[in-house]
Amino acid sequence: MGEPATKKAKTADPELDAACIETIGFLSVDQVQAANSGHPGAPLGMATMAYALWSKIMRYNPKNAKWINRDRFVLSNGHSCALQYSMLYLTGYERPTLDDLKQFRQLDSVTAGHPENELLDAVEVSTGPLGSGISNAVGLAMAAEHMAAEFNEEGFPIIDNHTYVFCGDGCMQEGIASEACSMAGHQKLGNLIVLYDDNHITIDGDTSCAFTEDVTKRFEAYGWHVLSVENGNSRDPTELIEAIEAAKACTDKPSFIRVKTVIGYGAKKQGTGGVHGAPLGVDEIKRMKEELGLDGDKTFEVPENVLSHMREAQTRGEEAEAEWTSMFEKYKAKFPEKAAEFERRIARKLPEGVFDKLPKWTPEDKALATRASSGKVLNAMADAIPELVGGSADLTGSNSTALANATDFQPGARDGRYFRFGVREHGMSAMCNGLAAYGSLIPFGATFLVFAGYMLGSVRLSALSGFQVLYILTHDSCGVGEDGPTHIPIETLATLRAIPNLTVFRPADATEVAGSYKAALLRQHGPSAFALTRQGVPNLAGSDAEKVALGAYTVAPVPDGSKPKIIIVGTGSEVQLAVAAAKALVDEGIPAAAVSMPCWELFEEQSKTYQEEVFVKGVPVLGVEAGCTQGWAKYVHYQHGINTFGKSGPGGKVMEHFGFTEENVLGLAKKLLERYKDVEAPALIDAHTLM
Amino acid sequence: MGEPATKKAKTADPELDAACIETIGFLSVDQVQAANSGHPGAPLGMATMAYALWSKIMRYNPKNAKWINRDRFVLSNGHSCALQYSMLYLTGYERPTLDDLKQFRQLDSVTAGHPENELLDAVEVSTGPLGSGISNAVGLAMAAEHMAAEFNEEGFPIIDNHTYVFCGDGCMQEGIASEACSMAGHQKLGNLIVLYDDNHITIDGDTSCAFTEDVTKRFEAYGWHVLSVENGNSRDPTELIEAIEAAKACTDKPSFIRVKTVIGYGAKKQGTGGVHGAPLGVDEIKRMKEELGLDGDKTFEVPENVLSHMREAQTRGEEAEAEWTSMFEKYKAKFPEKAAEFERRIARKLPEGVFDKLPKWTPEDKALATRASSGKVLNAMADAIPELVGGSADLTGSNSTALANATDFQPGARDGRYFRFGVREHGMSAMCNGLAAYGSLIPFGATFLVFAGYMLGSVRLSALSGFQVLYILTHDSCGVGEDGPTHIPIETLATLRAIPNLTVFRPADATEVAGSYKAALLRQHGPSAFALTRQGVPNLAGSDAEKVALGAYTVAPVPDGSKPKIIIVGTGSEVQLAVAAAKALVDEGIPAAAVSMPCWELFEEQSKTYQEEVFVKGVPVLGVEAGCTQGWAKYVHYQHGINTFGKSGPGGKVMEHFGFTEENVLGLAKKLLERYKDVEAPALIDAHTLM
């Protein structure tokens, strides 16, 4: 922030500007044409925007894509990624190379059909699902504000980067963006600058068919600083540069620059949906090039003077980072502890011994809802791990996510670590992705488990992007009670378990909550979700925080150590029923064991030997979980669950209604024993093992 | 629309007004107190709003909750349902009774913790998940406009009802509402009137912590007619009545009335989060009643004059409906065909013989993407079923949902049946729920399968509310290709299959597409989803439209009719691989059969005998589906799927990368045969049968 508008940025060579802009456009459409797949229209429409921003404004170092104080760039209309790849190549990043551009959208190339942060260092967040990138950017901007507040000292602006976003009409229509942009306005994020590619075209045609609102007025209503650029396709970038400089000068509001452009600028079908999502064709590209006096038969052509001008970004970037490094060295000398802490965070090393601070419980402690023990564990971890930041979508009390020793992150209080996300689940998840993408924070976001369905698009992107986001999801079964079916998750655990690279924990008690947090905090390359009870659960004698990492374990073995005749597996609040029913069977002289299975994904990572230690070959297994039964057939012979929607009533009664009582589970166990009295139960894990 | 502001509505008795408003408030807090659970704050804050609307404005008939031309009321802040239950009782609906109010939030009572349309006739849509109700209301309002355009004749306003919404700050923050309200503004829905309970309190406290945007300006930006009422808690409803009348007078824009209220009005803790979600306490309610000169010890007390005044709603309603019925009789005489068609639609009877019009395909027809055959089937059905209306979230071409013989629904073109939903998936789903809730339309909504994650909250509500909505979800696997992992569904089929009362179809070819539509159109009490390919698939020799209704069937039996040694089951585009691999095995002399399983839910409804006809006891089953394997262990011994995210590249190559080739499937089949060479494969369905 506070960086002066830099007049030197303007070039004195209009022809060179034009050549650069044209090269950006053609390099992009050549990629799409070579792939015979992709989106040429937006790159042509946004070429001047890209040139203005990357060549004249943005601070980044192509030689070190991960420089912590770089300006962040997010291409929210990710389908126009050919443009981003062109910029990365032209400004001199190691990847993509020119050959990479020629491999656009090919299997195993880094130039994927939408920008993927796992493939290219310079891509901050994976975009494509519309509205998501701009919402991530709000998180990136909040992260910068928070890091600045934590680490900057007088004369040492260690963190003062901006976050820039390109977005289109699609992003403007998505509710996720409305949520995040309302939040950005509330938070007065002066370091966030959005360039809206206002081209009036979406896939269905002119936006007049569905989208006639006054977008700039809406952003004013959110509290943004709003600017307009009327000719976004001018080959003279001055108006754009001035607008972005004016945006930078406004430090107490996010800026929204509406840039009027023509989609597919220069093509015959410019300004129509016809240039949006299909290659322009070899002949048309040839014609366009020739119209500008270029050789129409050459593709992927970058004039020498254009490349050398664009590659000045390397020198600018190296100088900028060198200047920063020299400042940081001085800072290090003056504030060695802060500097060390800063470096620890960037390296994503947890502080020493944090897990020693996990609270412990014994069976003598009184019953506690796992949302409540989560609150205690979260607080202990937040005290020990300052980079743990986050909040709730307006359910702080219900989710037990209040942090006793932290204040709210607000305008004028940027050192706050608690985020009041508002009633905005999807935006929260996307903002958490942005907070994680910054590279030095571990964000958490909380809501009711059932409302995962309101934010699933972004939870998926946490997983796809490998972001360590902790989702604290309370009220995890019909134990919710009175709020009824709209608030009772049935399918939600299955929903979350199905997402690749998302680790889902449903701890049985406080001890397992602690173990779940530990496993999730150690899992740096993906998100975790905790499904937590509203209602109290006892602290089980056999529960084990360390064994959560195994995914499932025998929480109540047969007392005499003999092989069980039946195994009852539960998760979360139903483990107590598994334990009680197993005990009742043992009391009747039937060897029975209970298994707690807090995490499917971690169990799947174990050896088959261990898996068959837990689910012993030939022993019938009864499962108990107050949710849908989908997926359980892999482990159990009969699953007692709920495959209809829930009911409104006191939690205990609703649980009883659906048969989640010790008596019913015991009865089911006896039926299962009877069922396999004379035949051996199929060894399910073995039965499904092929390779 | 165009109904004149009715001056007679104003009462001349201010004391009676006040008594009614107080009774509404106390009857609501008494419910919450009796249940010792619920939300007293909003009902107290909105009591005057409710009184003004229900007693002085809204047209409804308590004696016939389902009168088709009734005004619709949606309580978008569903947690304040005690208020709605009070109104329904006071105005004289059959249910809830006073006893029902005393059973608030108890198991099996109709007065559930949030309003449920399946429990009370007068509840139009189930609300609770915030932002959802107001978005449903946009659909309800569009449905009324469309029905009016289709059926009204000069002098015969058969349909001219309004849709009224109460909503709170939470609804205003949710992105789903932003999407739908932007659409409502675009559509100039003059029949939609929203009363915004602007009380500045959400669960986390004052809205100043997270929500400081200018809401009224935002709605102006959407193109709404915006009004304000400063004292929403006045015991004189005049200002509110006038505002609503002014809203009704504006017929070319939806109206947004910001009503400034105090949450928990009258309670000591009024205006704070303390009155939001917990009972006020017996003593406090007593104090409040006594302060107003009432007997503090009496609960559920309705003064005689209040009840008789409120119950005038019955007479008003009966008169209004009688007037309408008399008009409809005349309409019937003058326009018998239209009247018959109107009655058919209201009765939700499909036209005779519609399924005769389903297109047919043979193996000789060229390969066709199932999204393309869906387009043909949809068009055939839309031609035959005029109540089939809908559209796409800006992916009309990609989703193949364009209707050749229908125009767009737009302002000035209300007879249009094709809805341009914009890039608004969640809003689309919620609007479809509203279209379905109106009672005479079958809506469809389309997007890419992967973006089900953007709208899951509302898809869940389609299922929970029993609304017949058709979700057309194309680009259903890594066959999507170049667009890459953000656009490739992996977990999405599992996600949808896990939702109770949602029927998920993944047809193998054009013939099965036709069968899927038939099954979905016959299923009136819940939504269906079609997962459709982007890429072409052959028309299979053994596919059968009628057998889709069985969920799964043998598409390629062993040619000589003998028992197979292996069964290969696939869904969608992978059925061709199952068939090809089975054929290759047969060619090698190994009896093998292929099964197509377009719909799990329908298969689960079949007898165990039929199920074991398809998956023959003791025969190893190999499954093939280009998505995550979750849930398949119930049917197969080995499932070939994808449990990581997808990749960008040409579709065929990505399919090949993940092993979806005939060769690989054949290889897996041989491994499975080898695995069960000497032992019988466990009979999985039987193994999981307990009861």
TrEMBL record, chains A, B:
NCBIfam families: tktlase_bact. The active site is at 425 (proton donor). Binds 1 Mg(2+) ion per subunit. Can also utilize other divalent metal cations, such as Ca(2+), Mn(2+) and Co(2+). Binds 1 thiamine pyrophosphate per subunit. During the reaction, the substrate forms a covalent intermediate with the cofactor. This is transketolase. It holds the Pfam family Transketolase_N. Its cofactor is Mg(2+); thiamine diphosphate; Co(2+). Keywords: Magnesium, Membrane, Metal-binding, Thiamine pyrophosphate, Transferase, Transmembrane, Transmembrane helix. Its EC number is 2.2.1.1. The record marks 39, 276 as: Important for catalytic activity. SUPFAM superfamilies: Thiamin diphosphate-binding fold (THDP-binding), TK C-terminal domain-like. It comes from Hondaea fermentalgiana. CDD domains: TPP_PYR_DXS_TK_like, TPP_TK.
